[in-house]
Structures are given as structure tokens and as C-alpha cells.
Write a structure and sequence with these properties.
Blueprint (H helix, E strand, L loop, with lengths): L8 H7 L1 H11 L4 H19 L14 H17 L10 H21 L4 H5 E5 L8 H4 L2 H5 L4 E5 L8 H12 L1 H4 L4 H10 L12 H22 L12 H7 L43 H6 L12 H7 L7 H6 L2 H7 L3 H27 L39 H4 L5 H16 L5 E2 L4 E4 H5 L5 H10 L3 E4 L3 E4 L1 H4 L8
Antiparallel strand pairs: 1-2, 3-4, 4-6, 5-6
Length: 492
């Protein structure tokens, strides 16, 4: 198959800038110039070495896949090396000096372990003269191609793995100037871990194990991406305030049950006929009731009864049933049979009272108590989680004063050791921690020291440097009297 034009190293580095920034954090160099000299120069050499080559027909088979594999393998290796400790069999001072070298050796092994992979699987032919690329002779692909396009032919059978050839290519890529910064022991393990053995036999160095795990993680990551097991996240994670604003509580008012009005609604007086009269909705032209005719003779200024239409709104039927007529107060029936003048004068008041009594009796009969409906829930305001900060409680305990000579004895020690002495002194005075004096000095349990977040071995190391250490037992340590006085004053 035909391959693309060679892509510049700067373009490839810009394409993977986010991964390079993560590698920068893991490198932990004091300044940018040192990072570019030791780390970025190797990545720039790998970009010119691979250009747009794929890694193999199965893994990282896209254009530029070989360099992408190099960047990801280096990142995974740096992450794995962060939790490991190299040179544990060395003294502390020598270990502090050599640990950064092992960290850099992990990066070199991860970036150079795949230098030989594209050549094992593909034949790269330059279109200008049909010459095949051989990295052992021509070096990097980009300088060899120039501006000429190239073609890729998959080999029928991949070439065998030759770790010695990969180590030789790594020496060409890295250069002797950067390799000279490694000690002999770290340099030997570096070339032993380049292009790691998938299934090592016998003793395996920690450097080889970290690089081998990083290669496996990178390969498995690409396999998952090809199967579509996971997709890259293309959005930014919202803040807590945005989440709280989107998830505002919605309080819906409780539905109020529909209940008939409790206000008395007068209705027209019953007719002499015992049969109930038809509903006004059924008769198109209802005849005026006697109360309506009586209301016309009421003098000006007297209260008037509501019209028949108002009574229809208050009750479903305009005429009461015979049972309701029988249930009316007898005084109302007796007064209705009186003289017309008296009836005309008192009809509106009596009709209003009778209608109210009739309405109340009906409501009681069907179980309507007239209690007010349930109150709606109050509206809740959205909560801002950033504003919910607990008020720190003030420490009411009186802190003891620092003993005399505290700064002189512990001068130059880390803050963690100084804080241990202060906290241990406060707890001893309060009675929550127990230490004791013997003939040599102050005895402190190692478990007690570890409960304050400081390893007992670290405290022993700092105390020995200042000749403040007397004995280091299996379960406790003994401080010199000069240091023990800072925690518990010795009784006379």
C-alpha cells in the first residue's frame, strides 16, 4: 500500500502535546531547558525516526501509529514507575542520587523499545528510486525520505525479534551525551530492559518489569480502542455549581380536591305540586317562581333574594324534592301560607335562611365537612454546594509553650519531624500518649510514631545525623536526653 508524505517532527509533537505535558509532570525537571535537553530531544528524535509509519498490521496500524505508540508507552511507563522504589539495596545517600537516573532510564527504555517494530513487519520503499529503508543503515525515516513519498509493503513473514539490534538503534537515537549521565549499574539495566522479553525467565530487574508492563498496557489499550470497548471523552467535566444549577428541585403544588361551595345559595320556593319540577337545563323557557314575583313588590331598600339563575349555580336542581320539602322547618311553611303582604315583606330573608339550612344538611349528608384543603409545599430555593462550608470549631485546648532550646535542637530538620515533636509533646501532657524515661534516654514506641504519619525509620535517620539517637530497638527507639526533654521533661 502507498504511504503518505513524511510528516515533520514538529507537527507530530504538536499533535501529541497533551501527552507530552503529562510526561513533563512525571519528569519533574527543575527547569524547561533541562527537560528539552534530556527528554524532549529524545521524543523529537523518535518523531523523525518513525514519521507517519504504522507500528504493525495489528496494533497502532493508523498513519503515525508508531510514534503514537511510543508516546503512550512512555507515559504509561512513567506512571508505573511513580509508585516503585529503585535501588532499595543501596545506602540512602546513594539511593537519592541514583533514583532520578532510574526514572530517566524508564523513559529511555519505553521510547526505544519499538524502534525496530515497523521494519520487522513492513518494507518501506521510497518512490524516487525504489530503495528499501533499513534503519540500521539509513537511520531515521524522515531524513532519509526527504520530500519523497513512500510505499509500504507488508512482509509475508515478520522478521524475528532481535533485542541486540533494537539496543543498537537506541544507542544511535539517544546519543552518547545523554547516556553518559547514567551510572554503570543503571546503564547496564537500561540496555537490558530495552525491547523487554514478554515472558522473562529467572530473575527480572525492576526496570525491565516496569517497561514490560507499560508495553502490555499500551498494546491492550489499542486493542480495546479497535474493538470499540471505550470511546474518548470529548467534553469537559462540569463544576459542582453547574451541576447544582441543572439539578434544581422542582416542587409541584399538591392538587386541591374540588369541593362544593359552603356559602348558602337560595333557591326558588317549592311548588304546591308534590312531583318535582324538571331541571332548568331540560326546559328551554322556565316560568318565574313565586319568590321572583314576590320580590317585585318589595319596597326600595329592602334586601332582595337572588334570582333563579344564581340558585342554579349553587344547587344542581332548581326545585327541591318532596323529601326536602318535608324536611324544611315548619315555621317557614306556616309563614309561607300567610298573607301576601307579609309574605312579600319577609320572603327574601326566610328564603335565604331556608336555603342555607338545606345546603348545610345536604353537605353533612354526603360527608363534606368544609375543611380547608392541604396547604401547598413552600418553594425550595436551589442550594449552592460551594457556599456550604462548615465553620471550623475553635480549639479550646491550651497549647503548651515550646520548651527552651526547641529551635536550637531541631534546627535544620524537616517540618514533619518538628511537627511530630510538637504534637507528641501536647498529647503527652494531655495524657493521650505514653512515653517513659530510662537510664539512656526517652523511650518512644514505633507504632506511636507511625500514628502521627511519620515513619519511624525516617525519624531514626534524622536523629542519627544530629547525634540525638541512642538506641533503635525492634519495637521502640530511644532518644538522647537533649531531644527527649523537648517531649517530656525528665524528673529529677
Amino acid at each position: 500500500m502507498s504511504g503518505p508524505m513524511a510528516t515533520g517532527a514538529a507537527a507530530l509533537l504538536e499533535q501529541h502535546q497533551r501527552r507530552i505535558d503529562l510526561i513533563t509532570q512525571c519528569a519533574n525537571e527543575p527547569n524547561r531547558a533541562e527537560f528539552e535537553r534530556k527528554w524532549l530531544s529524545v521524543l523529537r528524535g523518535c518523531a523523525a525516526w518513525f514519521s507517519t509509519l504504522p507500528l504493525s498490521p495489528q496494533l497502532y496500524k493508523d498513519a503515525g501509529g508508531a510514534f503514537r505508540c511510543t508516546i503512550e508507552t512512555a507515559f504509561f511507563a512513567m506512571r508505573l514507575a511513580g509508585g516503585r522504589k529503585f535501588g532499595t539495596n543501596l545506602p540512602s545517600e546513594q539511593r537519592r542520587r541514583i533514583e532520578p537516573q532510574y526514572n530517566y532510564a524508564v523513559f529511555l527504555c519505553a521510547t526505544c523499545s519499538r524502534l525496530d517494530e515497523p521494519y520487522r513487519y513492513f518494507q518501506i520503499l521510497r518512490d524516487a528510486d525504489r530503495v528499501e529503508w533499513n534503519p540500521s543503515i539509513h537511520g531515521g525515516l524522515e531524513p532519509w525520505l526527504g520530500n519523497s513519498p513512500y510505499r509500504i509493503v507488508v512482509r509475508p513473514v515478520p522478521l524475528p525479534v532481535e533485542r541486540m539490534r533494537t539496543g543498537m538503534l537506541a544507542q544511535v537515537l539517544i546519543g552518547s551525551q545523554l547516556l553518559a549521565g547514567l551510572d554503570g549499574e543503571a546503564l547496564a539495566e537500561t540496555f537490558g530492559a530495552i525491547n523487554p522479553v514478554p515472558d522473562p525467565q529467572g530473575i527480572e530487574t525492576l526496570l525491565h518489569k516496569v517497561v514490560r508492563e507499560a508495553v502490555n498496557v499500551a498494546d491492550e489499550s489499542d486493542r480495546k480502542a479497535q474493538r470499540g470497548v471505550f470511546a474518548p471523552v470529548s467534553y469537559t467535566v462540569p463544576s459542582a455549581v453547574q451541576v447544582a444549577a441543572e439539578l434544581q428541585p422542582v416542587v409541584a403544588p399538591a392538587p386541591t380536591p374540588a369541593s362544593p361551595s359552603l356559602s348558602p345559595s337560595p333557591s326558588p320556593s317549592p311548588s304546591p305540586s308534590p312531583s318535582p319540577s324538571p331541571s332548568p337545563s331540560a326546559s328551554p323557557s322556565p316560568s318565574p317562581s313565586p319568590s321572583a314575583s314576590a320580590a317585585t313588590s318589595v319596597p326600595h331598600g329592602a334586601p332582595q333574594a337572588p334570582a333563579a339563575g344564581d340558585a342554579i349555580l349553587g344547587r344542581p336542581s332548581a326545585s327541591p324534592s318532596p323529601s326536602e320539602v318535608a324536611g324544611m322547618p315548619t315555621t317557614v311553611q306556616a309563614e309561607e301560607g300567610g298573607s301576601p303582604a307579609r309574605s312579600a315583606g319577609t320572603s327574601p330573608e326566610r328564603m335565604a335562611a331556608s336555603s342555607a339550612a338545606r345546603a348545610l344538611s345536604l353537605h353533612e349528608a354526603i360527608g363534606i365537612t368544609g375543611e380547608p384543603g392541604p396547604a401547598t409545599a413552600p418553594e425550595q430555593m436551589p442550594v449552592d454546594p460551594t457556599g456550604m462550608r462548615a465553620t471550623p470549631r475553635a480549639d479550646t485546648r491550651e497549647k503548651p509553650e515550646a520548651p527552651a532550646g526547641f529551635d536550637d535542637v531541631l534546627k535544620g530538620l524537616p517540618n514533619s519531624v518538628r511537627e511530630l515533636f510538637v504534637a507528641l509533646r501536647e498529647d503527652v501532657i494531655a495524657g493521650s500518649a505514653k512515653v517513659e524515661w530510662n537510664d539512656k534516654g526517652l523511650v518512644i514506641g514505633k507504632r506511636l510514631i507511625g500514628s502521627y504519619g511519620l515513619a519511624s525509620s525516617t525519624l531514626v535517620e534524622h536523629m542519627r545525623k544530629r547525634s540525638l539517637m541512642v538506641a533503635d530497638g525492634a519495637t521502640d527507639i530511644t532518644l538522647a536526653p537533649r531531644a527527649g526533654q523537648l517531649i517530656l521533661e525528665r524528673s529529677a
